Amino acid sequence: MSHRIAPRRVAFDFSRGPLHRIPGGPNAPHVINSALQTQVKHLAVHDTAVQKIVLPSWRELGAAAARHLWWSYHPSRQGPLGRTVAYPGQSPAARAGT
Hints:
about 50% helix, about 0% strand
């Protein structure tokens, strides 16, 4: 018995990716789009807080993260300890609660 191997022509469509094939899966495009919209909303909230001077800007956060990763980092170089300890009593949240 002889079997012939017939060549086949296979074409792949890389324009959409494989995620559209699983409509209810956790990686389906509508789930990813929803997660992306949530991230964008969080970024907008952060930007609003930066404008109100409640949170540091992305540049300040990046600089602080880089300082923490440096081998010679020590918390005492961040600022005076007395100011750090006094902040919770003077913070905007503490003032709003009084």
